[in-house]
Amino acid sequence: MTMDTLAQQIINDAEALYASLVQSHSRRLQNIQGLKKQFFDAVKSWQNGNDPTFQGVQERINEIGALGTVLNDQSVSGCQIQYEPMLGTTQKSMDLLLTQPGKPNRYIEIKTIKPLVQSKDKGRNRHQTILDHIAEDTNVLIDGINLDDNGNIKDDPNMGDYLGRVDKRS
Q: In sequence order, what are the residues at sequence separation of 6 or more whose Cβ sits closer than 8 angstroms to the Cβ of residue 78?
């Protein structure tokens, strides 16, 4: 499988996931069309050769995946979810705002990171390198895949979902 074929497969899967999430949870979502527009703009940029690293597409896919995680989390099942709400009177926004009457607002910022690890760190050691640079008391979800030299997904038991809370007191 070539990298272009893999990338297109990932794009198709993300598009299908987005459509499914919106169809299943439309009453809970606000401004979600903004995510769709940014996703397709990023895909177009990659297809036109303006983003050869695929970074813009990856960022939108990570936002779609995070949205799916939030939508399927029973602890926030009563929340309304707004995509990229403005923060007060500033020109800044967060990726997701979760609101529910009588409960504090929850803000979610999704970051796509590609740490340059010089050594042959694997799995949790690589994750710890990332966690060392994140503020204390931050909930973190890290997900990753490894590709072989031909662009095929490699099975690596040390990669995958890792959910943790940064606590620098230990």
A: 100
- DSSP letter at 87? -
Does residue 93 contact residue 86 with C-beta atoms inside 8 Å?
yes
Tell which residue, 167, 161, 156, 166, has the closest CA to residue 66.
161
Neighbours of 97 (CB within 10 A): 21
Q: Are 90 and 120 within one domain?
A: no
Kindly report the pTM of this predicted structure: 0.70
Enclosing domain of residue 127:
113-170
| pLDDT tens, position by position, 84-123 | 998 878 888 889 999 999 988 888 888 776 655 444 445 4
Nearest partner of 2 among 160, 147, 144, judged by Cα:
147
Q: Which helix (H) or strand (E) holds 11?
A: helix 3-25
User: 126 and 87: one domain?
Assistant: no
Unique residue bearing structure tokens 């799995």: 123
pLDDT band at 27 (very low <50, low <70, confident <90, very high): very high
